[in-house]
Design brief:
Layout: H1 11-19, H2 27-37, E1 42-45, H3 52-63, E2 72-75, H4 79-92, E3 100-103, H5 109-117, E4 122-125, H6 127-136, E5 146-149, H7 152-157, H8 161-168, E6 176-181, H9 186-195, E7 200-203, E8 214-220, H10 226-236, E9 240-244, H11 248-260, E10 265-268, H12 274-285, E11 291-294, E12 307-312, H13 319-326, E13 336-342, H14 347-354, E14 361-363, H15 364-368, H16 376-379, E15 390-391, E16 396-397
Parallel strand pairs: 1-6, 1-7, 2-4, 2-5, 3-4, 5-6, 8-13, 8-14, 9-11, 9-12, 10-11, 12-13
Antiparallel strand pairs: 15-16
Helix pairs in contact: 2-3, 3-4, 6-8
């Protein structure tokens, strides 16, 4: 299929697609849009930057009736991703009159209630805050026709599978459900078997972790030398830069040092308030900042076409984290670069990741003539220090960043950057009606540490 015109998309949506400059659909769109338009469930496996949002957003917009109440529900693991999905759907649905609302923890509940009173047709939500609204009655599921589970593997890692099941049990059974994930661990497959009906499996590049279109390189240096080489790479780059760090403290320090070097820098890490995080992302998206320094809290929620370079200031402790990080560049078929700065203590982790990279990888030590002098005590450990995912409930949950167990960017248990496992503030904001919550919904899972 060569053009969007062949996908039987209605004229209101096609008008937006043409304005956005899209002519040829991505493979995931070519295969999934017809299935969803026909009312079939879909399991889509594709990596970031391959057009998944339009793949589920276009059929949802086309099958929804304006003024018919909430008919579409998209569940995403993080507020950054939820906001990104909302903006994408709004762009594609510009001429449909369909209203889209985002609900997520950390934002004032009054703002969301006001938006819901305007009777949107699509809600994009993070799991914790969605359940708050369901239990409070501010979101009703009677008319829901489409349910999307985006980044299902991340929701698994964050401990949201039980929450997802809770939601799926509340929506009508005759819905169209699509599940999207970069990887398909057994728990995700079991979820799909239980809640999807004869789903069409669409696998795009499921075995390809090459980072196609990305010029990948690495440099082994002493930790104290990283800032010098980071600034060198930034100066050589055309376009914006994202620098990924593994801890909140490291993120702050790198951002501070770059600011001292007179770069326009913003940062995102787990201890920042939601307003500050949104402000940082706004400045970066509007090209008012050249560099974004972030923990992995932002790895799945950044879609900025101008990002020409991703720098892994710290080696991630899992291969999939590496690929999600570098996927922030080379978006939508563009080209980009990714450079990993490997400290001596991280050589073992890097060797493990290198084995998973199937494309060409440039050794900058050889290219720049930089010798590696590993102290003898470290030589004995090279190749042994491979991070193992940690066990906690469903599957194995790795530590993405610094801080407590199963944290994305630091903080407590299964947290995306601080606080507790939920994405929202204290759950006692609402008066619960009855005992609708199953036993697994422990009261302390949503206690507040305000973002």
């Amino acid at each position: 299929m060569n053009t969007f015109d062949e996908l039987k998309i209605n004229e209101d949506i096609m008008r937006s697609i043409r304005e956005l400059g899209f002519t040829t659909p991505f493979p995931i769109q070519t295969q999934s849009i017809p299935e969803l338009l026909q009312g079939n469930d879909v399991i889509g496996q594709a990596h970031t930057g391959t057009g998944k949002t339009a793949a589920f957003g276009i059929p949802m917009l086309q099958n929804i009736i304006h003024g018919g109440g909430i008919q579409g529900l998209v569940i995403a693991p993080t507020r950054e991703l939820a906001m990104q999905i909302t903006e994408e759907i709004k762009k594609v649905g510009k001429y449909t009159k369909i209203k889209v609302v985002t609900v997520y923890g950390g934002q004032g509940i009054g703002i969301q209630l006001d938006a819901l009173r305007r009777k949107p047709e699509i809600v994009v939500a993070t799991p914790g805050r969605l359940i708050d609204h369901l239990d409070n009655g501010s979101i009703r599921t009677d008319n829901i026709k489409h349910v999307v589970l985006d980044e299902a593997d991340v929701m698994l890692d964050m401990g949201f599978i039980e929450d997802i099941e809770y939601v799926l049990q509340k929506v009508p059974g005759n819905r169209i459900t699509s599940l999207w994930s970069a990887t398909m661990p057994p728990e995700i497959l079991r979820l799909s078997e239980k809640y999807l009906n004869n789903a069409k499996n669409i696998l795009i590049d499921s075995d390809d972790l090459s980072g196609e279109g990305i010029d990948q390189a690495f440099l082994v240096i002493k930790d104290r030398e990283k800032h010098k080489y980071l600034t060198d790479f930034i100066n050589q780059n055309k376009g914006q830069v994202i620098v990924f760090c593994s801890t909140k403290i490291r993120t702050r320090n790198v951002a501070r040092d770059l600011t001292k070097s007179r770069y326009k820098v913003v940062a995102i890490e787990g201890d920042m308030s939601q307003n500050k995080r949104e402000y940082s992302m706004m400045k970066f998206r509007k090209n008012q900042a050249d560099i974004l320094v972030a923990t992995d809290v932002a790895a799945r929620g950044i879609d900025v076409p101008r990002v020409g370079l991703v720098v892994n200031y710290d080696v991630p402790n899992q291969d999939m984290v590496y690929f999600h990080r570098i996927g922030r560049t080379a978006r939508a078929g563009a080209k980009g670069k990714a450079i990993t700065l490997v400290s001596y203590s991280s050589i073992g982790d890097w060797k493990f990741i290198k084995k998973q990279i199937k494309s060409d990888l440039t050794d900058l030590n050889k290219k720049l003539g930089i010798e590696v002098h590993i102290p003898d005590p470290l030589k004995r450990n090279v190749g042994r220090r491979i991070a193992q995912p940690m066990r906690s409930g469903y599957g194995r949950r790795p530590s993405y960043g610094g801080g407590g167990r199963s944290s994305y960017g630091g903080g407590g248990r299964s947290s995306y950057g601080g606080g507790h496992s939920r994405d929202g503030p204290a759950r006692d904001q609402y008066k619960r009606r009855g005992s609708a919550r199953p036993a697994y919904r422990r009261q302390n899972r949503d206690t507040n540490k305000k973002w």
